[in-house]
Specification:
Blueprint lengths: L18 H7 L3 E5 L10 H6 L3 E5 L9
Parallel strand pairs: 1-2
Length: 66
């Protein structure tokens, strides 16, 4: 994700829930993997409350080394 030009930051964290870091960073776009589809996503309501977007990203098959 960090390699995309449009991405400013990628944050890896060890907390069980993301709410604290989401409130601190206030991301414009909050991305979760497709395994979260249909589940409650911590912080999604907060992100949407200020006009941010919550995106579910589809998984892509690995192509292996090139």
């Amino acid at each position: 994700m960090a390699a995309f030009e449009a991405v400013d930051y990628v944050v890896v964290f060890e907390e069980t829930r993301a709410q604290n870091i989401i409130r601190e960073l206030r991301p414009d776009v909050f991305i979760k993997g497709a395994d979260w589809r249909g589940k409650a996503i911590d912080g999604s309501e907060f992100v949407q409350s200020y006009g941010g977007e919550v995106v579910i990203a589809e998984f892509q098959a690995s192509r292996g080394p090139h």
